[in-house]
Amino acid sequence: MGLFNSLFGNSNSEEKKETPALPWIPLTSLDQLEEISKKSNGKPQFIFKHSTTCGVSRMAINAFKSQYNLTKEQADLYYLDLHSYREVSNEAGYKFQVMHQSPQLLVIKNGIAVASASHGSINDVEAAKFL
Fold first, then answer.
1. Share in percent of the chain as helix, strand, coil (round to 5)
2. Number of C-alpha atoms within 13 angstroms, CB side, residue 81?
């Protein structure tokens, strides 16, 4: 069993790492986009657009979760389920002048998108530099 444990991990002998839950705010309505724009004048607003059926999106969000280290006092972090809220996703693209991609991270400051990244480049976004 040693080979299988080294390949797949052994939950009995290894201590599992706990990843703290992120302060996600569900993005579910068009009205929230105006709220995000206004709130971005005081602190950065992050929108993570996620496809719940895409393996690449799942890998990107897991990597993002492991590296995001801002508190809710420093920035707001929105989660947008693309399949459930397609209209909100489309309007976010129009409002913040970014081409839709999935997965995608938008950084909003002073009412505009100051950064956007998709797929593997989401992990290159250093959230703290937008404070």
1. 40, 20, 40
2. 9
Q: What string of pLDDT tens digits covers the 131 residues of the chain?
A: 454 454 455 555 444 455 568 999 999 999 999 999 999 999 999 999 999 999 999 999 999 999 999 999 999 999 999 999 999 999 999 999 999 999 999 999 999 999 999 998 999 999 999 99
What's the total number of domains in the chain? 1
* Domain contains 92: yes
CATH of the domain at 28: 3.40.30.10
Least Cα distance to 86 among 25, 23, 30 occurs for 30
